[in-house]
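Incident log, support desk, overnight shift.

02:14 A customer reports that sequence design results differ from what the structure should imply. Their input is reproduced verbatim below. On-call engineer (initials T.W.) acknowledged and began investigating.
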């Protein structure tokens, strides 16, 4: 696929690395020259454009018309909305995805034409710091599927997932992952050998169809 990443820093770097490793044609557009120089030197396969992705002329100069996916990771929600809309309406990019810091914007942006809206820039940054977690997310939640749902599950003593390693929980749907575990005010990025304990708060990323099944598999509640 042909994918363009607009804005961002740490998130963009890890995302670009994973996409390149998967063989996708990847373009990065960022107005931070130092960051762009670093990315260009680090990833020879990456096409790097120095410029403001909020500027339509910059997007045209990047020659990303008819790309498959646009991912906008700017710090301002309004900028992400604008970039996604320009990508789809002006450049013919088929699908778009962005992060938002205000959860109230998830439904609003969806109604305004953004295909996939992920709330909580902090959560995204934490996940993207772990390339393996991001790879699982991309595999489990393909862009072509429905909107990503961010959910929270609190594990009790009676929960099916309690006192089990993540790799032992076979009932989790394929298009759903445990993105992070909140335990004693700390954040754990789970791996297969991470044990789920009573009292843990699980942050789930699921397709809209898999959210209920994930709740049942992990908490025993619908």
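02:41 Re-run completed on a clean worker. Output:
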């Amino acid at each position: 696929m042909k994918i363009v990443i607009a804005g961002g820093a740490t998130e963009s770097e890890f995302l670009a690395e994973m996409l390149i490793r998967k063989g996708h044609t990847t373009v990065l557009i960022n107005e931070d020259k130092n960051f762009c120089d670093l990315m260009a030197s680090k990833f020879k396969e990456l096409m790097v454009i120095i410029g403001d992705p909020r500027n339509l002329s910059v997007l045209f100069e990047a020659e990303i018309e008819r790309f498959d996916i646009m991912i906008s990771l700017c710090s301002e929600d309004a900028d992400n909305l604008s970039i996604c809309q320009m990508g789809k309406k002006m450049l013919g990019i088929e699908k778009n995805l962005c992060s938002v810091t205000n959860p109230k914007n998830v439904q609003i942006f969806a109604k305004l034409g953004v295909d996939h809206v992920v709330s909580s820039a902090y959560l995204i940054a934490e996940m993207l710091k772990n390339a393996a977690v991001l790879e699982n997310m991309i595999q489990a939640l393909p862009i072509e599927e429905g909107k990503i749902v961010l959910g929270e599950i609190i594990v009790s003593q009676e929960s099916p997932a309690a006192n089990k390693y993540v790799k032992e929980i076979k009932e989790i749907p394929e298009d759903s992952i445990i993105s992070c575990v909140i335990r004693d005010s700390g954040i754990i990025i789970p791996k297969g050998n991470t044990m789920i304990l009573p009292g843990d708060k699980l942050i789930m990323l699921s397709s809209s169809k898999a959210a209920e099944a994930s709740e049942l598999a992990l908490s025993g509640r619908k």
